[in-house]
Q: What sequence folds into this?
């Protein structure tokens, strides 16, 4: 196998940046105290957690006590959706979400459906974007929760979450709006003005795995899932993952310090790639032009996704077929289907997701590799 | 008093002059599976035992551990912990042991099933049954004697080496068959699907010592399939009681060449013919670790299941190798195969849907009534020897370690 590593699967997960890693290490070996302990070791850990909480609060323009640490995106989603739905079920049992959400959201909603909630899933437009009026049209008196992702993990489509939230509340002021921010935090400036809850995953922004956060606007009524020692103001019991929290804070700090420059560079990479793809007749673009700068979903006509993934892997390039979470059960992407992308293109879809560690020089190599793989594969398969 | 595990082996007893060879193999496999030294496993007059230290009980950790591992020893029909008492024990002492082995329940039916092969023992089996039955009835007033199909059968065997006491509730069934290693050596062709590990296991059960071959067509099949095959081999090695080799020849070019050069309906048949040729090559080559060869190939073919498994195509595929191909699943239904796969714990691994090479390179209209002549004709367009040589040269060999 090739020794080259060109990693273009950053929507699946990212490399931990050196700054975050270095910041974390002492919290494994030196400052390993429990933040709940009364002694000095506990205090050091508590301060470190506080520092990261402050970093996140500043980025989100939120209060520190609106930030809760969790084990990651999935737990944040579960806590928010189930927590809000259950705590407010006396007011109504109707939830609106979309067909293009991440599995963690869709599966949560399926569980709630079994508990007696009624779920409405709206379809996005052909760009994969959820249009505000499609949500508003579904609002009823008994609607308690609206859950819309900020940026789609497969297509990169960006939803206007604040407009959705504002107009929803104009129609029914008691509605809570939750937003899955796994693919947006660290890549976009976040404005949570009308949003009640927002989930974040650290490993999508060069932080460690196993740590995430949930923003919950004050006075949002929520039932915790985990019972225990009452950490995170009783919302999320369990000893804090201090090294993870420290790494998360640092990764977020770096991401927002360099946000403008990184965005510009990644845009350049994507544009160069898009330009090059025009010379490949088999390639078609699935992501809308308005998608987030870091994601590009394409299809290579006639080549099944998995075969292309392996063939590029052989050349040192790592990309995804559909979304990585579905990677061990190869079924056609529900997102691309919902965005009305034709079936043959869904079956040959590839997702490139870039980070600040990609370079424009890599693009030339990727394009050549795609061309080589196409001709290798086409000579073998029918 | 000490605990022993009585080991029962059915078919072995029939093996006439070869019997000691089978027994020896079985004892070696038991020793490897339980990590109990060979000299603690004894065979006397058609009975095999594992003997534990004086004072051990059936709940001692070393006994429990051995019971766990014995179910993987093929050739055993069943096994049971039992108490071993001195051969001159009195009926009173034996009666006390009987009370120890029976469950603490209020009411039940029972019988005493005794055997006396040690003629110096002062009571015959009728007396033993009556006296011990009396002991039980005295201590368990609500228990009733029932000679046919009782809830609890208490076995008492008076042998010259000791008196053994156990019950039907302590007996555990094993899979039977013949000890691995007594029926020669064969290569199992593993695909990652449900059938092939079951086929490999079934031949292991008939005493075959098996290593495995997986044909890798990277990048058309991903490394996750390879990982899956490694996981399957890790399940098979449990029954082998020694390390297992997984041969992974390079298959991409062969499939690509066939699909480029030969008529599409024949693709699958030709892929399979090359698999047999490569497996034969591996089987007959002296592998430097042990210098031994393999005498047969094992596949999970199931008559009529897919296009390559029709009666015609099996004939065309067989012609590619001089080795016999064992196909133990040929006459089974899918449900039977699945239930064995579940039993040997391979089903959950096999059913993960990673495409294997057969699906990626599959032809759209496969020939189901292949003829040898057309396969031979099509292969004339290929440089068979060169392709096989390259495939073996680029072969990876993975050792799957046996840890009981």
A:
């Amino acid at each position: 196998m090739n020794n080259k590593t060109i990693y273009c699967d950053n929507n699946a997960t990212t490399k931990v940046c050196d700054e975050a890693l270095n910041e974390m290490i002492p919290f494994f070996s030196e400052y390993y105290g429990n933040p709940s302990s009364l002694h000095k070791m506990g205090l050091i850990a508590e301060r470190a957690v506080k520092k990261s909480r402050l970093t996140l609060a500043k980025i989100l323009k939120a209060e520190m006590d609106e930030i809760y640490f969790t084990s990651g995106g999935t737990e944040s989603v579960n806590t928010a959706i189930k927590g809000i739905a259950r705590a407010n079920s006396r007011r109504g049992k109707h939830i609106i979400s979309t067909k293009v959400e991440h599995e963690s959201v869709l599966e949560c909603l399926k569980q709630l459906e079994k508990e007696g909630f009624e779920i409405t899933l709206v379809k996005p437009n052909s760009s994969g974007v959820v249009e505000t009026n499609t949500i508003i049209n579904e609002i009823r008196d008994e609607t308690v929760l609206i859950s819309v992702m900020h940026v789609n993990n497969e297509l990169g489509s960006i939803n206007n979450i604040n407009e959705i939230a504002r107009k929803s509340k104009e129609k029914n002021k008691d509605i809570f709006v939750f937003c899955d921010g796994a693919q947006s935090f660290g890549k976009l400036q976040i404005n949570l003005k009308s949003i009640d809850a927002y989930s974040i995953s650290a490993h999508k922004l060069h932080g460690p795995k196993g740590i995430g956060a949930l923003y919950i606007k004050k006075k949002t009524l929520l039932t915790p899932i985990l019972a225990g020692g009452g950490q995170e103001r009783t919302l999320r019991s369990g000893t804090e993952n201090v090294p993870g929290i420290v790494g998360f804070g640092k990764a977020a700090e770096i991401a927002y310090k360099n946000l403008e420059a990184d965005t510009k560079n990644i845009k350049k990479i994507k544009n160069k790639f898009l330009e090059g793809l025009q010379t490949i007749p088999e390639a078609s673009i699935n992501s809308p032009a308005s998608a987030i700068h870091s994601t590009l979903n394409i299809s290579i006509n006639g080549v099944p996704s998995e075969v292309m993934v392996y063939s590029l892997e052989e050349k040192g390039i790592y990309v995804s077929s559909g979304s990585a979470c579905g990677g061990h059960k190869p079924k056609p992407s529900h997102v691309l289907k919902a965005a009305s992308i034709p079936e043959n293109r869904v079956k040959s879809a590839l997702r490139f997701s870039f980070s600040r560690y990609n370079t424009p020089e890599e693009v030339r190599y990727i394009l050549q590799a795609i061309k080589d793989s196409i001709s290798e594969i086409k000579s073998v398969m029918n | 008093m000490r605990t022993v595990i009585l080991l029962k082996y059915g078919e072995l007893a029939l093996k006439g002059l070869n019997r000691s060879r089978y027994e020896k193999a079985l004892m070696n496999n038991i020793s490897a599976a339980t990590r109990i030294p060979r000299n603690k496993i004894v065979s006397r007059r058609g009975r095999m035992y594992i003997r534990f230290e004086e004072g051990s009980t059936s709940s001692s950790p070393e006994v429990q551990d051995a019971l766990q591992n014995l179910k993987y020893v093929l050739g055993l029909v069943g096994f049971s912990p039992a108490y071993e008492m001195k051969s001159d024990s009195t009926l009173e002492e034996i009666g006390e042991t009987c009370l120890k082995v029976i469950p603490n329940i209020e009411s039940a039916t029972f019988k005493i099933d005794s055997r006396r092969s040690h003629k110096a023992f002062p009571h015959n089996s009728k007396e033993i049954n009556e006296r011990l039955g009396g002991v039980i009835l005295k201590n368990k007033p609500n228990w009733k004697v029932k000679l046919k199909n009782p809830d609890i059968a208490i076995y008492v065997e008076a042998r010259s080496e000791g008196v053994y006491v156990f019950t039907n509730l302590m007996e555990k069934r094993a899979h039977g068959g013949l000890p691995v290693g007594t029926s020669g050596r064969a290569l199992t062709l593993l695909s990652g699907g449900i059938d092939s590990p079951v086929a490999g296991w079934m031949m292991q059960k008939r005493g075959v010592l098996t290593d495995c071959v997986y044909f890798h067509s990277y990048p058309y099949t991903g490394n996750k399939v390879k990982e899956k095959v490694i996981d399957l081999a890790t399940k098979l090695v449990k029954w082998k009681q020694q390390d297992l080799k997984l041969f992974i020849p390079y298959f991409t070019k062969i499939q690509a060449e066939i699909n480029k050069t030969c008529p599409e309906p024949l693709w699958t048949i030709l892929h399979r013919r090359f698999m047999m040729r490569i497996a034969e090559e591996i089987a007959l080559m002296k592998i430097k670790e042990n210098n031994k060869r393999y005498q047969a190939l094992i596949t999970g073919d199931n008559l009529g299941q897919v296009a390559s498994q029709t009666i015609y195509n099996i004939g065309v595929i067989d012609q590619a190798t001089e080795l016999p191909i064992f196909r133990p699943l040929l006459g089974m239904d899918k449900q039977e195969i699945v239930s064995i796969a579940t039993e040997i714990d391979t089903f959950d691994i096999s059913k993960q849907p990673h495409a294997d090479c057969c699906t990626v390179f599959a032809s759209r209209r496969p020939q189901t009534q292949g003829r040898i002549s057309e396969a031979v004709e099509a292969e004339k367009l290929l440089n068979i020897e060169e392709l096989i040589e390259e495939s073996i040269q680029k072969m990876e060999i993975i050792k799957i370690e046996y840890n009981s």
